[in-house]
Amino acid sequence: MRRWLALAALAASSASAADYSGPLFDAHLHYNEEAFNGSEGPHPLPDVLGRMKRNGVRAIIANSRPNDGTKSLAQSPETRQAGVTVVPFVRLYRNRADYTNWFRDETIYEMVQAELARGTAAGPYRGLGEFHLYDSANANGPVARKLMALAEEKDLAVLAHVDDTAIDLLMAHTPSKGAKARLIWAHTGIGGAPVARVDQLMAKYPRLVGELSYRPGLTCEGGRLCPEWRQLLLKYPTRFVVGSDTWINQRWQYYDDTMKGYRTWLGELPPDVARRIAWDNGASLFGLKPP
Ligand SMILES: [Zn+2]
């Protein structure tokens, strides 16, 4: 009876666990043209920085179509005033047509080289992406191969929205065959690769990191973590990050809700694990200091 009471008390305390309240690293942020549209758009710089600030987002992986959005975040004194560190990535898309052709388009490779040479006001680019592969076989496209090799040579991270098959294909194109590749798996497989398969890939590639926006099966009733995902996060506490994926303006409108949702389920984890997923894992990928 006493044991039952203790268990009941434990369940009650975890049900009312406080939300995570520390800093957040938004590891999947886009500031696309339609968000600001010169300064006529619905989300000019002060608006998006205000959203980050009030949600305790202290660093972001910025990547934007075209790269101008990232550059304006990187160079604005308002970004520093908001206490937000920008980790710039080269987006592979100049326009929407590039989504379905980048992996074989040499002009994309040239654009990436030019951007890397130029850098941003916040320092050199630290990664490539986000890119998409709607057909995993396109991971074998000539430009996809070259970019994966380039990323590893220059120790750039890669943010890839791909399925689990493409993870293996992309890793195979790096000089280390994936042993050293810093690949951030956007959504950790938006198609919902089974947890066992995610586990297998995490074990196989020591620097693979799972980003958790839109991940099917992650949360269950009431926005709480589903049991098998909770187990996976506890098994690899240094390997997951969270992101907003502001790919359309609507995602900016709901930015507060997205971050609130993360804080809710992060609060169900042991505090050190929550802090890692929320901040430390992203920060240590790029050598950021604690905020
Ligand atoms: Zn995205």
Task: Explain how this protein is built.
43% of the residues lie in helices and 13% in strands. The chain has 291 residues and is of the alpha/beta class. It has a single domain, classed as Metal-dependent hydrolases (TIM Barrel, Alpha-Beta Barrel), CATH 3.20.20.140. β4 (127-132), α7 (142-153) and β5 (157-161) form a beta-alpha-beta unit. Mean pLDDT is 94; it is low at 11-15. Residues 28, 30, 130, 186, 245, 247 line the site of zinc ion. This is Amidohydrolase. Keywords: Hydrolase, Signal.
Which keywords apply here?
hydrolase activity, alpha/beta, binds zinc ion, Amidohydrolase, eight-stranded parallel β-sheet, 43% helix, TIM Barrel
Describe the structure concisely for a colleague:
With 291 residues, the chain is of the alpha/beta class. It contains 13 helices and 8 strands.
Instruction: State the shape.
Output: globular
CATH topology: TIM Barrel
Helical percentage: 40-55%
Q: Based on DSSP secondary structure assignment, what is the total number of beta strands?
A: 8
Report the portion of residues in β strands: 5-15%
**Widest β-sheet, arrangement of strands:** 1-2-3-4-5-6-7-8
The CATH H-level superfamily is Metal-dependent hydrolases
Task: Provide the domain count.
Answer: 1
Task: State the assembly state of the protein chains.
Answer: single chain
Q: What's the CATH architecture?
A: Alpha-Beta Barrel
- Global Rg: 19 Å
Bound molecules: zinc ion
Protein name: Amidohydrolase
GO molecular function: hydrolase activity
Signal peptide: 1-17
Keywords: Hydrolase, Signal
